[in-house]
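lol forgot to send this yesterday, sorry. struct tokens for the thing we talked abt
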């Protein structure tokens, strides 16, 4: 999930962002309305956490312009306004939810996760595929009942692939979905994260590399086989997925400069999410 936090109080904005990053959410920050609109124009965000009382361009105007563009980004408004008419006015602009200050971070996180699920095709908080169970609310994962100890980046990569429901996700899409805006389009971090994730998932391999396109989670996988049950060599028998070494870059992983425009018809591209709110 990718979130843009727009809050003119830099300390509060970074507190929110740091908390969400610890919860495996990719977060960018803007301190004013103008910066927010520029980021929304070039970034693909699931949720916008928008302070209503912004200096310069008011949060209401940011919300109006976002809705006018027809983006799928969901809006959670933050404000000190507590009266019912003010809350109704904010929602009537096109905001999807409303949270008054002060607020508990846990409630903010729960609301952001709920809005993020509405951007994607309806999926439950617990996703299961190919023997992997991902609990996005508790940030827990396991494969065939065995708990997985994942870093926030590994969890976010796995969640992105799981939510694709078998569709191919390009390396560039993973960069956009999981890494912050200053990561550029160097897909080497994606290959490294995938290598480590594959090692933790163990065998048989469940993350497939589609040459020239990207990656996907297999529809199903045979039951995991313990080393003692496997004839001959252990299950890690030198496969790159099990060893944790980065895989050889394929055509889908060719680095691209940040100023190269994305193709709207790239397989697995998230660009199609921009059409229609």
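and heres what i got for the seq, position by position
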């Amino acid at each position: 999930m990718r979130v843009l936090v727009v809050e003119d109080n830099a300390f509060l904005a970074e507190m929110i962002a740091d908390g969400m990053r610890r919860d495996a959410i990719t977060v960018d920050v803007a301190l004013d309305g103008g910066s927010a609109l520029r980021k929304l124009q070039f970034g693909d965000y699931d949720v916008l956490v928008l302070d209503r009382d912004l200096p310069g361009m008011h949060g209401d105007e940011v919300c109006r312009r976002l809705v006018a563009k027809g983006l799928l980004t969901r809006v959670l408004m933050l404000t000190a306004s507590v009266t019912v008419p003010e809350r109704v006015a904010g929602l009537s602009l096109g905001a999807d939810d409303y949270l008054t200050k002060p607020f508990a971070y846990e409630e903010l996180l729960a609301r952001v996760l709920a809005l993020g699920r509405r951007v994607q095709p309806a999926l439950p908080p617990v996703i299961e595929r190919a023997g992997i169970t991902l609990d996005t609310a508790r940030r827990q994962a396991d494969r065939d009942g065995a708990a997985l100890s994942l870093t926030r980046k590994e969890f976010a990569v796995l969640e992105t692939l799981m939510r694709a429901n078998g569709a191919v996700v390009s390396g560039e899409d993973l960069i956009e979905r999981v890494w912050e805006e200053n990561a550029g389009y160097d897909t080497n971090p994606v290959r490294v994260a995938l290598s480590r994730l594959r090692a933790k998932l163990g065998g048989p391999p469940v993350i497939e590399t589609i040459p020239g396109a990207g990656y996907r989670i297999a529809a199903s996988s045979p039951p995991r086989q313990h080393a003692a049950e496997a004839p001959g060599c252990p299950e890690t028998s030198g496969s790159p997925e099990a060893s944790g070494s980065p895989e050889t870059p394929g055509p889908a992983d060719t680095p691209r400069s940040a100023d190269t425009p994305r193709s709207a018809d790239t397989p697995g591209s998230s660009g199609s999410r921009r059409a229609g709110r």
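Residues 2 and 177 are 6 Å apart (CA to CA). anyway ping me if u want another try
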